[in-house]
Design goal:
This protein is of the alpha+beta class and about 425 residues long. It contains 16 helices and 16 strands. Helix 1 packs antiparallel against helix 5 and helix 5 packs parallel to helix 9 (about 230-250). The protein has helices at about 20-35, 50-55, 60-65, 85-95, 140-155, 170-185, 195-205, 215-220, 230-250, 290-295, 310-320, 325-330, 340-355, 370-380, 390-395, 420-429, and strands at about 40, 45-50, 70, 75-80, 105-115, 125-135, 165-170, 255, 265-275, 280-290, 305-310, 335, 360-365, 385-390, 400-405, 410-415. The strands form three sheets. It has an eight-stranded mixed sheet.
Length: about 425
């Protein structure tokens, strides 16, 4: 017997009962970004491999171990995007929309791909919403990104479940001085480091700081601190950011070990973390990358941004039971019609109601059926009310109106008064 077809491990279907919550989350974010003046950009999911090697860094875990890379028919090396910032920078450079100091405030949404060990909240195909801002170099825009996420957590009802961690990585020069001091310190304790940290010491020593190994963490207690190596400009920028967060009343924790996993970050880095999702605690992260555009062949252009994981945030909403009631109900009203004449009249009546109430979720029974079977489908739909069209209703040009959830008697409503009645009842319901 042939093997049954199924999805690739770590690449999951999002089923119809799950998509309403996804759409609610994505719609909430999109509306918030519109209100803050951000514009959407859409990039391909496949890019030349060189893009990610040049931007993320060839000795990062992503490039070394996690990318989905293949040759196409022309022999070009292509990669499914593992993150969005590099692709966005490529797009703005290719189309020249940041030239001449033009400020761009952009956002995108879509799937990313990394070959990791799948676990709850961490998948090989995962979805992100990302923001990128170009040609604004002050701490005010860093603060806006963080304030925007703080507002989002409030709208979603999860503000008490997340914590903001902050750090500054300084400029490439100050980071270089710190790297030398860190390597010197860690080399003196080489035998106490775990195997992965020993490897990173030679390739990407700052990543040793975010190790989860307890023995290596003990070594890091007395390690040099990045804050002691910051240049004056980076220190002033970081103080400006903290002052703005204090002014808005956004709490934060300074985390000197926060370095992020990508080579292009400078100055501000931040993460929103939670203890509600087990090991996968980061739900949103980002920072400043002032040298990335130039590194990728453009003119000096400042940049800052973040990405949030949709799977993890949807999981948080489920875990904390922060799902609006209307999300679980996809139908407001269900119309039952009995007999061909009633079906024809019901279809026409439903379309007139939709003209008058375009936001009403009205489902018309399809496939005919007995009184009992249609009411069973109406109840299963989750609708608040059932509309009934039979011989008696047709003769009187009324529709039966029956509450399906809670109190209330069935009543008859004239066809021309139905939309107005539904507008009142559905809002009240």
């Amino acid at each position: 017997m042939s093997k049954s077809l199924q999805a690739i491990r770590g690449m999951n279907d999002i089923l119809p009962e799950q998509t309403p919550l996804w759409r609610y989350f994505e719609g909430t974010v999109a509306r918030l970004l519109d209100n803050y003046g951000y514009k959407q950009i859409r990039m391909p999911i496949v890019e030349f491999t060189e893009l990610f090697k040049r931007s993320i860094g060839e000795v990062t875990d992503i490039v070394e171990k996690e990318m989905y890379t293949f040759e196409d028919r022309n022999g070009d090396s292509l990669t499914l995007r593992p993150e969005g910032t590099a692709a966005c920078v490529r797009a703005v450079l290719e189309h020249g929309i940041t030239g001449g100091g033009q400020v761009q405030k952009l956002w995108y949404i879509g799937p990313m791909f990394r070959h990791e060990r799948p676990q709850k909240g961490r998948y090989r195909q995962f979805h992100q919403i990302g923001l990128e801002v170009f040609n604004l170099d002050g701490p005010d825009i860093d603060a806006e990104l963080i304030a925007m996420t703080w507002r989002l957590w409030g709208e979603l009802g999860i503000r008490d479940a997340v914590k903001l961690e902050l750090n500054s990585l300084g400029t490439s020069e100050s980071r270089g001085r710190y790297r030398e001091a860190l390597v010197e310190y860690l080399s003196a304790h080489h035998d106490k480091l775990d195997e992965d940290s020993q490897r990173r010491l030679k390739t990407n020593p700052l990543r040793v700081l975010d190790t989860k190994n307890a023995d290596t963490q003990a070594v890091l207690v007395d390690a040099p601190k990045m804050a002691d190596y910051l240049d004056d400009e980076s220190r002033a920028h970081f103080e400006g950011l903290k002052a703005r967060l204090d002014a808005v009343g956004i709490p934060y924790v300074l985390n000197p070990k926060l370095v992020r996993g990508l080579d292009y970050y400078s100055k501000t880095v931040f993460e929103w973390v939670t203890d509600k999702l087990g090991a996968q605690g980061t739900v949103c992260a980002g920072g400043r990358y002032d040298g990335l555009v130039e590194q990728m062949g453009g003119k000096p252009t400042t940049g800052v941004g973040f990405a949030m994981g949709i799977e993890r945030l949807v999981l948080m909403l489920e875990t904390l039971e922060q799902i609006p009631e209307e999300i679980s109900r996809q139908v407001d009203v269900y119309l039952c019609a009995f007999g061909e004449e009633a079906e024809l009249a019901g279809l026409a009546l439903a379309e007139r109601v939709r003209d008058q109430l375009p936001n009403l979720r009205l489902q018309v029974n399809a496939g005919a059926g007995s009184f009992k079977s249609q009411f069973k489908k109406a109840d299963k739909s989750g609708a608040l009310y059932a509309l009934i069209l039979g011989d008696d209703e047709m003769a009187q040009q009324v529709v039966g109106f029956k509450p399906l959830r809670g109190q209330g008697e069935q009543q008859s409503i004239a066809w021309d008064a139905l939309a107005a009645h539904l507008a009142t009842c559905v809002v009240q319901g």
